[in-house]
Design goal:
about 625 residues; mainly alpha; 36 helices
Length: about 625
């Protein structure tokens, strides 16, 4: 493999090196010369002569420029490379920078390659040194690489300082938009608004730029600024096409949710516009920046159509706007004026969970959870309350109430305690699920959990993160924890599916060949339903879906419903899109889970087809 990559790289170099002449080599070497007694541009604080200026290169400058010639001669070259080839070029660029640490061109190339590889720390370091040398002569592309690297690293204040400096001389639309976003990220909402309006005016009041700006204003709760602009330009947004990026599409969905519109085809644009005016009137009257006062309720009854519960209307409005703070802060008055107490209570719980108000949730659900789970007939609300309580107990590390929860589950569970817990570990964060299971196992002093089942479930949960498969990467902390866990499991069983799949995956990430191929791994036995679920997903993504269609494995650990669920998805994966629609219809409570599976097992083309033909 390495030889093949070397051959590819040598071919690229041969095709480009003749385009670099001696004049360019000398100019790029001699440009931006740093005086010996000046401060070194690397940021060390030393004089240049005592820092980067004393480096003696192992090879001459022309050699490295030749090696990097494809990036110099073809500005689009960076976008066309496979990761393995780009990584090899990055090694060349790093070596070049070590030998010529103050050369603006080598630093620029190294920074751009590092950014493309998602090495944002290195990209920021290289580009910062490049900027220190060229200052105002930095290209816009390299400037944005530096800014975006800083933002990816969450060094927002440093990015703000840099943009403040360069925007004086380069007042481009792109910089104004970046500064708008930076100001909002830092909570400087008024400044963000001002930069945003400068951005809009400079664009010539372009509808595309306004679309982006209104979305930003709404995200940052500037409703009183956003809705007048939205009303004034509502019909013009049609020119952008109805897609998820169009503010008209977003606001129409808001109207559907707030006014409980079952079929959007029942409304035309004028109907939507009237609803938007009504929402705007409500927002202007109640002032979302302040708590809702009882004296405003009578007026709200005149604004909000009489067949809507005021609390439920407002909760739907602010939940879709993701203003969870408003819902949480106004819990008491919302409960006082509603006839939909259970619905509003659930919405308040949802909002507090979104806000990570875990202590509130522990206190609230500690009193209600057992009663609700025993008496509720609403699966969704029961599921959410269980999830909120479990996650909150983990976050605040309330061992006493966690043990009480485990004891309660052990007494009432129709399945088993571990299975109940697994059912509410969400797929948004597999690492968090892994950590919660570890926490529960560590405080279990009465053996609610079987050791082997718990270890297998933990490994299955963390291996559900298919980003490790897609990117062939895993952070060091995760890899250490998985290795520690697989070593614990090895003492119990070293020939199961989860044991071999975990080792197969770790070897794949390290570019090593495992002792078993994937088909042999799939044929190994599972001892918990969670690892069966993982096995099905691995088959769907990496092997043959016909296995699930014709002869699904592990029948002793799955029921008829599970097998039907995965069979429909397998048939959809094989090309029968109607089966994807069928799985959504037959399992409506699992919509998000189904979407998550599809994102795992389908390629970009297949996902687009499914979303166009089924989900939309």
């Amino acid at each position: 493999m390495n030889k093949e990559i070397d051959n590819i790289i040598n071919k690229y170099i041969e095709n480009h090196k003749h385009k670099i002449d001696q004049k360019f080599i000398q100019n790029s070497k001699n440009s931006y010369q740093i005086k010996r007694n000046e401060e070194c541009t690397c940021g060390s604080g030393e004089k240049y002569k005592k820092c980067c200026g004393k480096v003696i290169p192992d090879k001459d400058y022309e050699y490295y420029l030749t090696q990097l010639s494809p990036f110099i001669c073809n500005e689009n070259f960076l976008n066309n490379l496979e990761k393995e080839v780009l990584t090899k070029f990055y090694d060349i660029a790093k070596e070049a920078e070590q030998n010529f640490p103050a050369n603006y061109l080598i630093l620029e190339i190294a920074g751009n390659i590092a950014y493309e590889l998602n090495y944002f720390e290195e990209a920021a370091a290289y580009m910062q040194k490049h900027y220190n040398i060229v200052e105002n002569n930095i290209s816009e592309d390299s400037l944005f690489t530096l800014i975006h690297s800083l933002l990816r690293l969450k060094r927002t204040k440093k990015a703000e300082k840099l943009v403040t400096k360069v925007i004086k001389d380069n007042n481009s639309l792109a910089l104004l938009m970046i500064m708008t976003e930076i100001k909002f990220t830092l909570g400087k909402v008024h400044e963000g608004y001002k930069y945003g309006m400068r951005y809009y005016e400079k664009s010539g009041k372009d509808i595309y730029f306004l679309n982006r700006l209104i979305r930003l204003f709404i995200q940052n709760k500037l409703y009183k600024k956003a809705f007048p602009l939205l009303k004034k330009n509502y019909f013009e947004f049609e020119t952008l096409g109805m897609n998820s990026e169009n503010i008209k599409y977003i606001i129409n969905n808001l109207v559907d949710a707030v006014f409980l519109i079952d079929n959007s085809e029942d409304l035309n644009d004028n109907d939507y516009f009237e609803c938007i005016k009504k929402i705007s009137e409500v927002i202007n009257y109640i002032n979302p920046d302040k708590s809702l006062k009882k004296k405003k309720i009578s007026k709200l009854r005149q604004i909000i159509p009489e067949d809507y519960d005021i609390s439920f209307f407002l909760v739907r409005l602010f939940y879709v706007l993701k203003n969870y703070e408003w819902i949480a802060e106004n819990e008491k008055i919302l409960m006082d004026i509603t006839e939909e107490e259970e619905t509003i209570n659930n919405a308040v719980l949802d909002a507090n969970f979104e806000l990570k108000n875990y202590n509130y949730l522990v206190k609230k659900l500690n009193k209600e959870f057992e009663i609700n789970i025993l008496n509720s007939t609403d699966y969704v609300n029961t599921y959410n309350q269980f999830r909120y309580y479990l996650y909150s107990l983990y976050e605040v590390k309330d061992k006493e109430h966690t043990k009480n929860l485990l004891s309660f589950l052990n007494n009432v569970s129709k399945k088993d305690t571990l299975q109940d817990i697994l059912s509410v570990l969400t797929y948004e964060n597999y690492y968090k699920g892994f950590e919660i299971l570890e926490y529960l196992y560590n405080i279990d002093d009465v053996n609610f959990f079987d050791e082997k089942e718990m270890l297998e479930a933990q490994l299955a949960v963390i291996n559900m993160n298919f980003a490790y498969l897609d990117n062939n990467e895993m952070d060091k902390e995760t890899k250490l924890k998985i290795n520690r866990k697989i070593n614990e499991y090895k003492k119990i069983d070293c020939d199961s599916f989860i044991y071999h799949y975990t080792n197969w995956l770790l070897n794949r990430i390290d570019n090593k060949k495992y002792e078993l191929d994937l088909e042999q791994v799939i044929n190994k036995k599972c001892y918990h339903s969670k690892s069966v679920e993982l096995k099905f997903l691995v088959i769907l993504k990496l092997s043959d879906p016909q296995i699930i269609i014709k002869n699904p494995p592990e029948n002793d650990l799955t029921d008829q419903e599970d097998r039907q669920f995965f069979k429909l998805i397998a048939e959809g994966k094989e090309g029968d899109i109607s089966k994807i629609q069928e799985v959504f219809d037959k399992f409506p409570d699992h919509e998000k889970y189904i979407e998550n599976i599809l994102d795992k097992i389908l390629n970009e083309y297949e996902i687009e087809e499914v979303y166009n033909r089924v989900l939309y």
